[in-house]
Amino acid sequence: MLFNSYEFILLYLPIVFTGFFRIARFSHRLAALWLAAASLFFYGWWNPKFVLLLLASITFNYAMGYAISRVGNLVRSRTMLIAAIAANLVLLGYFKYANFFISSASDLLGTHWTLVNIVLPLGISFFTFTQIAFLVDVYRGIVKEYNFIHYVLFVTYFPHLIAGPVLHHKQMMPQFSASATYRVSAKNLAIGLTIFTIGLTKKVFLADSFAGYATPVFDLVRDGVHPAGFVVAWTGALAFTLQLYFDFSGYTDMAIGLSRLFGVELPQNFNSPYKAYNIIEFWRRWHMSLSQFLRDYLYFPLGGNRHGQVRRNINLMLTMLLGGLWHGANWTFVVWGGLHGLYLVANHAWRNIKERLGMPSTDPTLLGRVIGIIVTFTCVVIAWVFFRAETILGAASMLSSMVGAHGILWHQFNDMNLGQGRLQFMLITMLGLLIVFIAPNTQQIVMGSGRYWVANRSVGFVYGMVLGVCLISLGRVSEFLYFRF
Length: 485
Description:
Elements: H1 6-24, H2 28-44, H3 49-70, H4 74-109, H5 124-139, H6 148-156, H7 158-161, H8 169-177, H9 186-220, H10 230-261, H11 279-285, H12 288-302, H13 309-327, H14 331-356, H15 366-388, H16 392-402, H17 411-415, H18 422-437, H19 442-447, H20 450-455, H21 457-472
């Protein structure tokens, strides 16, 4: 079930919302159980058989977490933690990476091994990482509550289940236990509907529009046989860069808004990442919950920056390579992660050079910031080519076209029937760039003046009208990009 569908907005959400708060009048425990059951139904709407897999994963991890918390011996608890994490990674590896490893080994050895017929369960990367974080937090003594119903709800909670944000146990459990969560709040309704509307607008009017320009271009260069011209290549690259931003940030806004309707606050996941003036800053702003997970549960355990610059650089590369592979079983994602690893290494190296030269470590000047944003954004666009391309050859063809290796080929834009033509693309791209570089982000719009617009009916009416236009425009429902991961 998709957030941007009529069955979700007009049927599922009203029924779940009404049931939750009606049941909460009599029992908070039953209300939490209702929301957990509704979340499982939401997941099962796609493929009911995978609900059993999700429940098995939840039961196993809860039992292991509870057992780890009760073991007094540090060695035994560590052994149990390693075994539990390994079991999660084996499950993830089978569904997501079995065919990738078989195909890669077959190509390397020159054999013709048959691929396994596997259907990738939706959201398996997200609910696996969420539960690995839970197990580690139990081992560290951070987890204090072991209410099974709340744990099921923590993992399955429908706003975040399919595509994040990646949640921590300590973020959610106090909210599921708070009495205020089980009472309807006018402020939560106003904030939630506003954030949801902003996210839906991003998806319907921006992300899906840019998809119409990005998809044909990347389809053209898929096999590396049919090159794109300079204009078309940059059209595709910029279109996907903006499509991904509005698609994923739109999903996250909708998830945060939906959760706020139920009185639960999800963590911010985007903070205007394309405004970052270096790549370190970019990763503090882009997919923030995943960045924090990789930092806390991979980079730091590898040693972080505690053992010198060389070891830090190796840890950065390993973290980003694995982060790339987490996104998908394809060498293009590995290259994407490797590029960002190299970007981060170069960024740290530049900082070290500045320190040795005695240059100030303060924030850059306005000119320096603008130059930094342009350079960072260009590097990000180049890396996104690998993220979107289906093959390494396709990505290489795309990049060669972007440097003019195959000519300008203005006519190709019209020959490929890209939307309504160059003018429309230029207008929508200018709008998209203005939004990501100039406009305040969702949190700044909503939380910066929350008390004002909650009480202001005219502003509420405007958002209501926008939501209505979005609903009218849901003629073609499209999946969110991060559903693939």
